[in-house]
Amino acid sequence: MFIFAYSQLLMIILHVTCGYDYTTNYITVPVDHFSYTNSDTFKMKYLMNDTYWDVDKGPIFFYAGNEAPIEDFSDNTGFMWEISREFNALVVFAEHRYYGESMPYGKSSLDDKVKLGYLTSQQAMADFVDLIKYLRNDTLCIGKRPNPVIAFGGSYGGMLAAWFRIKYPATVEGAIASSAPIWQFTGMTPCNDFYKVTSSVYRNTNIECGSTISASWKAINNVTETDSGKAWLTDNWKLCTPLETTDDVARLKYWAADVYVALAMVNYPYEANFLAPLPANPIKEVCKSMTNHTEDDATLLMSVFHGLSVYFNYTGSASCLNLSSAFSDDMTKGWNYQACTEMIMPFCTKGGEDDIFEPYPWDFESYAKYCENRYGVKPTTDDVEKQYGGKNLKAASNIIFSNGLLDPWSSGGVLKSISSTVRALLIPDGAHHLDLRASHPNDTTSVIHARKTIKHWIIKWIFDYRHRK
Amino acid sequence: MFIFAYSQLLMIILHVTCGYDYTTNYITVPVDHFSYTNSDTFKMKYLMNDTYWDVDKGPIFFYAGNEAPIEDFSDNTGFMWEISREFNALVVFAEHRYYGESMPYGKSSLDDKVKLGYLTSQQAMADFVDLIKYLRNDTLCIGKRPNPVIAFGGSYGGMLAAWFRIKYPATVEGAIASSAPIWQFTGMTPCNDFYKVTSSVYRNTNIECGSTISASWKAINNVTETDSGKAWLTDNWKLCTPLETTDDVARLKYWAADVYVALAMVNYPYEANFLAPLPANPIKEVCKSMTNHTEDDATLLMSVFHGLSVYFNYTGSASCLNLSSAFSDDMTKGWNYQACTEMIMPFCTKGGEDDIFEPYPWDFESYAKYCENRYGVKPTTDDVEKQYGGKNLKAASNIIFSNGLLDPWSSGGVLKSISSTVRALLIPDGAHHLDLRASHPNDTTSVIHARKTIKHWIIKWIFDYRHRK
């Protein structure tokens, strides 16, 4: 569960064309911004729209791209598009190096550790600085005119937006960091908090739902003890590949745990297809069938299966349940590499009162071994803290950390305001970066309020910027 | 003059044992902090003294080493030693990579461009972060206890101290950046400001002194037009090597201009031997002989020679005037490399009303050519602005920029307070980082006051740090 869990930060998915209009552009940037040993360059992609832009005073809304092709984020960040009109803003989405088309060494970028070594958040942010400078001077020719840059980002992109403001406050005037787990690191957040939050979402939806999931792990173990039990589960859960070994059973449990996490992330109040096509309030839907944790193992497992079906087969088009990842190796390799270098996030579960999962410790040693085997890198646990300050954000300014409390990643988020200009914004009934998504008739009061608050802060930052010049 | 001028930022010189006591230590740090392509490490040197340290509450006074062996800075930063007692501070001087003993690739560190490529301010600061973390956790075992770090630095070290606070405010609570020309870069300060300040020091000492220097360039040109004139000057200025070509004459003029700058930098109110052994208020001494710019060429050149003698022969031990640099190639190679990569500082002179020098334009193209020939690097002009924010320091906090107005480098310094916690501190009769030097009976009121102000700010920062935890 713990290695797979990383792929959930990876917010890739189904390409949906949302009808947002942009031009696709490229800028040449250095592969290495921090030494002079490598003078290679590459083309970084960015999307731009100036429909509503007022060159004399409009801000630049800059999305700090994360671990997927940039279109995935431009499609799922409707908030930026919607408010660009009232702010007369230029909209820019920058693609993160080593994702989408922005490959420093073309198709072989992810192949070897020397080429992959430049995949870091620091290098990505230095790309962003170059892009903003280039836009100001070469493309827009606005130089230092009063067009402040406001950074936006969700999830890892939200971390980048916050860090971007922390490290480059002269480049970016403020940051909207949505669902940004900047404290999901060693020594900052207990390793089981992520699954605690996930669990509370199920328990709060329906206490029996949480208990049913809790009970299901033992039920799976019981039933799959025998070969006939494995065959029964294969049959009744309609698995594409039969359960044969204990490893197969473990993989099934990982998959289920991942699904529970994914559902919590995308527990939106309307139909959406972000991680998968799902109904409105999917957890409510999932929990409908899981209402009695005292059922016998077979009955309980069938009710769990019905619940899980909401995730893997909402459309009814899946002929069987495929446990292998929906993500190709190419799609996840970049992020998994980052998770082996800078982004070491410890996860664990304890079970019982703590969470609805089977106990599973955080084992740094074995994780490090995996990283060495796969990428030839030795993970360290303190790079992020050293570079970005960890829990000490006292000197930061102009950052909104918004978090939906239904989102497992809120465990590593900033949930209390740090200072008068570094603010925590809570969306109690919101899931993973709901606030950055396009508005929807089903939006709850809390997300509508959050978006208003964000706009107020942006107005203030722009005002402060203009009246300083 | 313009390439040589860089060597004046290089504050090396005569090793003086000041009787400060310390242990000499080493820490292993990565050669590259910003990519995972190179896993080499090296030993970085640091000096430490805990005589007055109170482990329960004393701060860590951390000198951000600059472009020379660290002992040069520990010897010439008496202020830190003196106040360590009243603050119960731990004193640490960290050596900058590629200087002194801190050579990433041993004796061949400066030899080729791949090895040299990791000589950057960013990498050096990441070393400092590692050192501070290591001191806290491994050496002092204080973890996150209330021992705030205050960074100090003079000249390039002052730039590093300021940038260190800007980039790593969670690591360092405040910075004393003395004579730190963080704005001596393209687009931030006109290229002739440096020589304007230098000129004003001479003109203010004695208007005739400035005029005499102004007139001397033409006098040199006139006299050296003929071979007999060259011989005359060689003889009368006691040159070690005779003037034979126009290039030799140009070199003589460069040398003289450099001496005028150096004198302005070390125009201290007491005898000192920082760049050279010099009397108190050396410019006053130099100007004593230069009192009439209308003298005939030969008389004028003799008065100038007597003035210059104060610099090159105050002790009377020089048998002839040696125009070649006092710095070996090894001593300057590191800084000259930095001046070809990140630290491109444009200098020029205009002559006439503007300054006391011959007009000399800033020629980036030829400078770039020199850098390519010598180091195989193509200089860019905006790295510092992109990384550290240039003139926009609005989001910074807890930095004192102190500048002596006799110091040519004050031209690129922060001379006006930016905000309530980023303060400019002017020392009208102070030269290059006079405030960081040990106190002296001849200290002027202004430097005594500056040191008091600095101490007040340090007290405030420590207070704020403690009452936040």
From TrEMBL, chains A, B:
GO terms for molecular function: dipeptidyl-peptidase activity; serine-type carboxypeptidase activity. It is found in: Lysosome. Residues 1-19 form the signal peptide. It is an enzyme of class 3 (hydrolase). SUPFAM superfamilies: alpha/beta-Hydrolases. InterPro entries: AB_hydrolase_fold, Peptidase_S28, Ser_carbopepase_S28_SKS. The keyword Aminoacyl-tRNA synthetase does not apply. It catalyses: Cleavage of a -Pro-|-Xaa bond to release a C-terminal amino acid. GO terms for biological process: proteolysis. The keyword Signal applies. Its EC number is 3.4.16.2. Keywords: Carboxypeptidase, Disulfide bond, Glycoprotein, Hydrolase, Lysosome, Protease, Signal, Zymogen. Pfam families: Peptidase_S28. GO terms for cellular component: lysosome. Homodimer. Cleaves C-terminal amino acids linked to proline in peptides such as angiotensin II, III and des-Arg9-bradykinin. This cleavage occurs at acidic pH, but enzymatic activity is retained with some substrates at neutral pH. Belongs to the peptidase S28 family. This is Lysosomal Pro-X carboxypeptidase. The lineage of its organism: Eukaryota, Metazoa, Ecdysozoa, Arthropoda, Hexapoda.
